[in-house]
Amino acid sequence: MRYLLLTLLIIYLPVTFAQPRQSLVPGGIAMIELDPNDTGGYLFRKKPVLVTQIDGKYVAVIGLPLSLSVGEQFIEKSDATQVHRKYFEVAAKQYSTQHIEIKDKRKVNPYASDMDRILAEKKRKQKARTHYTETEVDVDFLLPVKGTKTGSFGRRRVFNGQAKRPHSGMDIAASTGTPILAPSAGTVIELGDFFFSGNLVYIDHGQGLISMFAHLSEIDVTLGERISKGQVIGKVGATGRVTGPHLHWSLGLNGSWIDPALFFAAPD
Ligand SMILES: [Zn+2]
């Protein structure tokens, strides 16, 4: 009986151990193993760099913005006597273009009367994206919704014939009402009904790693709430600028949106 139970446990335990995968392109992440006696404290473009333990080693995980120029980049820190730099090389990546038709034209060309709201929300979003708390981070992520991944990160997007910002996250197609699980522990730092994103929730996972979930039909958390990994934070919906129900998940690291798929095993 004990043997059978053990077998079942082995079968039903999650088999994928998610951990970040390096991708040295704009929108990707750099991963630099630190010396055992190196306590971190690095900056990348003046923003603090996340350090986590992977396989018993300390690793700096650096978010690379979509706007980053290719070529040599570095993280650095200074002590009393010198500046320490660690270099890495960023290669170009060509992201594809996606054409999208939005029925609600106001979400593509807002009215003049919408602009105050949009600008106020933009400030709140920027503040949330660059939020920083010095805490341990669990980078072993859960996928927040089971569904089909569509609209991949970084795509240049044309809404109703007009070029807009590149896609800043991962879209997962799922029906309205599907529970959204927190991919990792954290704290709710922003939420509300936003013009473009619809109902949204920001979770601070620590050390500049920030999740943003958009287009929710329902928000099931409160501002400042401490969230555990796997906790339901809301339900999938179709609020804001969308063509249908799906979860939009953006993942920010040191102030930049990066591809959330890099926190999961590579697709086969
Ligand atoms: Zn999206």
Summarize the structure.
This protein is mainly beta and 268 residues long. Helix content is 10%, strand content 38%.
Structure, described:
By secondary structure, this protein is mainly beta. The protein is 10% helix and 38% strand. It is built from two helices and 21 strands. Strands 9, 12, 14, 15, 16, 18, 20 and 21 form an eight-stranded antiparallel sheet that branches. A three-stranded antiparallel sheet has the order 1-5-4, with no helix packed on it. Strand 2 (43-44) and strand 3 form a beta hairpin. It is globular and about 60 Å long. It starts with a helix and ends in a 10-residue tail after the last strand. The chain binds zinc ion (ZN). Zinc ion is lined by residues 151, 167, 169, 171, 248.
Secondary-structure topology with pairs:
Layout: H1 2-12, E1 29-33, E2 43-44, E3 47-48, E4 50-54, E5 57-63, E6 71-78, E7 83-90, E8 97-100, H2 115-129, E9 148-150, E10 156-159, E11 162-164, E12 170-173, E13 179-181, E14 186-194, E15 198-206, E16 209-216, E17 218-219, E18 226-227, E19 232-235, E20 246-253, E21 256-258
Parallel strand pairs: 8-10
Antiparallel strand pairs: 1-5, 2-3, 4-5, 6-7, 9-12, 10-11, 12-20, 13-19, 14-15, 14-18, 15-16, 16-20, 17-19, 20-21
Bound molecules: zinc ion.
Zinc ion binds at residues 151, 167, 169, 171, 248.
Keywords:
eight-stranded antiparallel β-sheet; Immunoglobulin-like; three-stranded antiparallel β-sheet; 268 residues; binds zinc ion; 38% strand; mainly beta; 10% helix; globular; Glucose Permease (Domain IIA)
